[in-house]
User: Fold this.
Amino acid sequence: MQNYRELLAYSLISNNFEPNSRILAIGEISESLKNALALKHEIYKLINPEILSAKQL
Amino acid sequence: MHRKLKYLMNNTRLGFFPLKYFDFIFTVSEFNKLEDDLFIFTKIVTNIRTLKKDFGYVLLSFCNIFFSGVAYKNSFIYFLFNYVQKINKFDRHYLLLKDENLFSLNKKDYNLSSKHTSVPVTMIGYSILWRTIPELPIISEIRPGDSLKKRPAYIFHHIMKCGGTSVGLSLYNWFKIIFDHTDDPNGIYRNINEYVNYKINLENVYSDCCIVAHFQFSGFLLPQRYPEAIQRNKEFRVFTFIRDPLELMISLYYYGKAVSQLLWKNT
Assistant:
C-alpha cells in the first residue's frame, strides 16, 4: 500500500508539474522517491509534521 | 543529486515557514493516527492552505480500515471529504470491497477484538487531491474598465448558422457572457426599440467578459454600434466563426422554413 501511494505521488508530480516546481513532502517518504523527485524538482521535507496540528503557522 | 533537497523544521524564530510557497504538497504516511478533534483538523487544513501557492495542489493519502464492511477509523478523511475542494472522484467503499484488486486484506490486531487476537481487516487507500482557488475580495478600488489595460475583453460576432449557439455555450466556461441580441431571452433588451436606443457601456466591461451579438444588420454592424471597441483594439478583441457558404445557406433555408412554419402555427 505504501509503495502504491508513493508511486501515485511520483506519477502525479512527474506528469503534471514543470521542472523546478517547489514540492513539500509532509512526514516520511522513501529514499528512492526523495531521490527521484530531487532530480527535477526543488523538494522540501517537513520533518516535524506535528507542527501543522499544534499551532497556526 | 541532493542539491535540491531541503528540510523544513520547527524554527519559527527565524520565520522559516515560507508562506504561499509550494506548488505541490503531499503526504503518504502522516495523518493516520490523529485524534478525533475538529479543531485539530481545521488547523491542519488551514496551515497547509497557508503553505501552498494560491492555485497549488495537495495530495493526501490515507489508509482506512473496514471491519465487517464498516469503516472503523480516521475521521480526518471524512472531514476532508466535506471541507476541501476535491478534484478526484470516489467510488463508494462497498463497491471497492466487491473487487479484490482494489483493497488489501490484513490479519492484524487493531484493538477491534476484546481478546487482543488478530482479526482480518480490509484496508483501502484513499488519496484526496485537493485544490483551492483564491476568492476575489468583495470590495475593490479598481474600476471594471481598468483591468482591460492588462487583459482584453472579447466580442464574439455571432454569424447566424455558423455554430454560434454552441460556441456561446462553451464560452460560458471561461467568460461572463453579456448578450447584446435584439431578441434573445437572455439579452437585456425587451424589444427592438430598446436595442436601437441603448447599447452596452464598454466602461463597465472588464477582462472576464465576452459580449455576444449578431452584428449583421446595416446600421448595427460592429464598427457602427461599438466604434470605441474598434478604436481601443488592444482592450477589445473581436472574433467570429465562419462556415462553408453553401452549407450556411442550406442551413439558413431550413431554419427560415422551420421558423416560418412555427410562426404560421402560432398565428
Q: What stands out?
A: Helices of chain A lie at 2-16, 31-40, 51-54. The beta strands of chain A are 22-26, 42-46. The mean pLDDT of chain A is 86. Chain A touches chain B at residues 1-2, 4-6, 8-9, 12-13, 16-17, 21-29, 34-35, 38-39, 41-49, 51-57 (CB under 8 Å).
